[in-house]
Design a protein that fits this description.
- The complex is a heterodimer of chains A (about 450) and B (about 500).
- By secondary structure, chain A is an all-alpha fold.
- Among the domains of chain A are: about 80 residues, Serine Threonine Protein Phosphatase 5, Tetratricopeptide repeat (Alpha Horseshoe); about 110 residues, Serine Threonine Protein Phosphatase 5, Tetratricopeptide repeat, CATH 1.25.40.10.
- Chain A is built from 24 helices and no strands.
- Chain A is globular.
- Chain B has one domain.
- Helix content of chain B is about 15%, strand content about 20%.
- In chain B, strand 1 and strand 2 form a beta hairpin.
- In chain B, helix 1 crosses helix 8.
- Chain B is globular and about 70 Å long.
- Classes of the chains: A mainly alpha (about 450), B alpha+beta (about 500).
- Chains A and B meet through helix 1, helix 2, helix 4, helix 6 and helix 8 of A and helix 1, helix 2, strand 2, helix 4 and helix 6 of B.
Chain lengths: ~450, ~500
Amino acid sequence: MEGGGPPSTRPSTATDMKILITLTLVVGLIGAALLGGVVGESRSAGPAAAAPVQAEALRSEFGSADTVSLVGRLQDEARARPGDAQTNALLGLAYAQRARETGDAAYYTRAEAVLRRAHDLDRKNVYALTGLGGIALARHRFADALRIGRAAQAAAPGSAAPYGVVGDAQLELGRYRQAFATFDHMAALKPNASSYSRVSYARELRGDVAGAIASMELALDASIGRPEATAWTAVELGKLHWSVGRIAASASHYRYALQVVPGYVPALDALARVEAARGRTGRAIALQRRASEAIPLPGYVAQLGDLLAATGKGAAAREQYALVGSIERLQVANGVKVDLETALYRVDHGIRLHETLALARRAHAERPSVLGDDVLAWALARNGRCGEALVHSKRSLRLGTRDAAFFFHRGMIERCLGRPIAARAWFTRALVLNPHFSVLWSPTARRYAS
Amino acid sequence: MKRTILAAAAVAAAALAAVAAALVGPGPGNGTASSHREAPLISEDPVADNTDVYAFVSPDKPDTVTILANYIPLEEPAGGPNFNGFGDDVLYELKVDNTGDGDEDISYQFRFRTETRNPNTFLYNTGPIDTLSDTDWNRPQFYSVTRVDGKGGGISGAGRRTTVLAQSVPTPPVAIGPRSTPNYGSLMGAAIRTLPGGGKVYAGQIDDPFYVDLGSIFDLAGLRPFNPAHAIPLPAANGVDGVGGFNTHTIALQVPIAQLTKDRAAPTGPNDPDAVIGIYATASRQRVQVLGKDAQPLRTGDFVQVSRLANPLVNEVVIPLGEKDRWNASDPSDDAEFADRYLAPEVTRLENGLYGVLDDAPATSRDDLAAILLTGVDLRAVGGPINLNFTGSTKADLIRLNTGIAPTAPAGSGNRLGVLAGDLAGFPNGRRLEDDVTDIELRAFACGYGTVVGPVVQALGECGGNANRTPNNLLGDGVDRNDRPFHVGFPYAGEPHQGYEHVHHSSVGGP
């Protein structure tokens, strides 16, 4: 049983104390609920033992989601009925969920195989197609995802989920007008957490943070009764507040996520950034370590490296940075495209900059999104090609996105082009929006802004 | 065999949707604002999910109709710390059509609002909750009731008359256990409120009154009492109530009949032309658009219906998976487009395929099922004395209640087989809490209507000349009553199971 919040946190105020007590209580309550579940299960071993895994899973949905045992039972089911499309589809979705829970991309490979079998058994099975679309998205294969999403729409024209696959793919391919229309259709067909969170993201990209928060709050209400979804939505809501520098509001949402799902890893990661912003680097490192050990995503590990580096622990930081490369290689081996993420990481850390520029160009060609333009702009700038960088920086801001990192990159480009006044304005803009946008670069922005 | 296995999957569609929701979960987000994040693709929305709708002439107050609209499926009583409530952003509606066109003429709208009494804790309560105003209860929920007269959906519309009937009505807390909610009955009673004009209202947690052997039916449409006759035989066994020990949330409304009928009068008898009303319930959520300006007025604007329900099991067994989102957003007055699904039900094919012992019922052109579920039945068409609940030729999935048929028993004591057993105050004339809709529908789908209704359906020329096939007329899941007794008075449903102690899978009924 993991704790609900920063375990090493020492209560500094009465409010903190109250929160700690609450955390302890809630953790106790969760334990009791889990125990109740175990007792209930053994009690049901009599006449209900024949109940299939679907019904079991239905019931467990409102308890704590135990995907590991669900996978085991679905594997049994699939062995017993290999020709059943729906069982295979559910098993595939369960593997994909394990990938998200563990960060182990090998689960995507297993998920894809089972979902393909389900699709072959029943070409119209919307879960098989949506699952395959979701895996293509997770692997950042957005052109594939678009194709699968279209097939899912054709198979189930009355379903909202395929719109999510199509819209997400359009968004990452830089087809924003189409993506926004897709999300609008999705939200008109089914206003729920899936469509609300997508409309929120689209608004965020357009720089409408207030509108993004409003839509994400609707998503939070539409997630009631599903702890994982509630926690995810709360973290996203917190990140929106964070993106415009509202640290206290963001921390409150992260803590809420940890109340709902104790040990929720994305909340630990986000809370680490809050602690770092508040100058509590030790706590930040502890939280970031917990997050990256639970789900070793490159972003979590790199952030841990940055925090260690910022406190002068160079050797420990290098250990983490070395890990980033290994994890990315594992992801690539399981079909995940990480060019854009790798390029950004390398440009940020000054690794093989010339070679990385070529990587950024390839990534941008495949993913001409605002992020693709920003990363390419940043890679060009760090290679001294600031005129070309400016073109892509302008394109990265074409939607009006308010992203402090984008603003900072622009400042660096203007500075490189010998325009100190413009550069200072961009650095100031980045810092006014979110003074703690990056452990690595915020200090640089502060230095150059003054 | 493969075909029937797939059909079984269709029966279990409701369960599968929930599984998928658990599995197509969200992934961790990325660091920067504009990088790809794995938002969930399929999102179940339990607080906006209709589970069952009941409508009956109140046995203890026969000049009124009671409607219960239930939301939140299979609510685990030990749900802490994330206890369920109604959605503050959901528009809940109980709708009445009194003109037979499938479009509502009256809508009762419910909007909820959660208060936080102590902002310093996320806990539901910090001590025993003795009264509805107890300060130890941190998250009480209140609601408003608005009656809207006139056609059209959404929160407002031209030509519609809106009357606020009640505001800030309290809901009771959820049933937690002997320490947190020691006198639940008194909390429940205190939450019943009188409406102007003689109605009553209650909204809150209840024991789920639905009873069905989910565990067996989801296992290739198994019916434990019929286990030896299944294509994959097992020893016969008692049914197990799969909903036993689970709660749900209800919005219960009791209204004088004269406030619901077209002529605004109590019916003169079952054949009063205005006696039959159609009832359904919905949940809607606010529509948002990427370029929309709805950031400020969060609780207003266009609403999109995300769930609707009238007749039991229609959403589960009649509407295919890929059509559910569209069906849930559509209006009953447009149900003609789904009529083919009623005429050729998957369930009938499944019954025929899996149970060799049954006398195979026609699996196409089932006008009898379309009539029962979409238009109602007039017994006078076959020489009977009364109109049971026919509302005209418009096909619409509604619970049709003849308000001119008097109650036949105290609440909870009617014959579980309703009209099939000659108890005309039961399903499909309205739906009472005690009606065994699973057995009734299983028999109807298999043309095993019994000796009362069989001759009627036969006289209508349906079921291939035999509407009382044997042993089809004995079909059932072996669960014949709810796991908790019902109350004889409003809101009739049983008290919710408490998280501290409850039992699932109780074995009820005989083989």
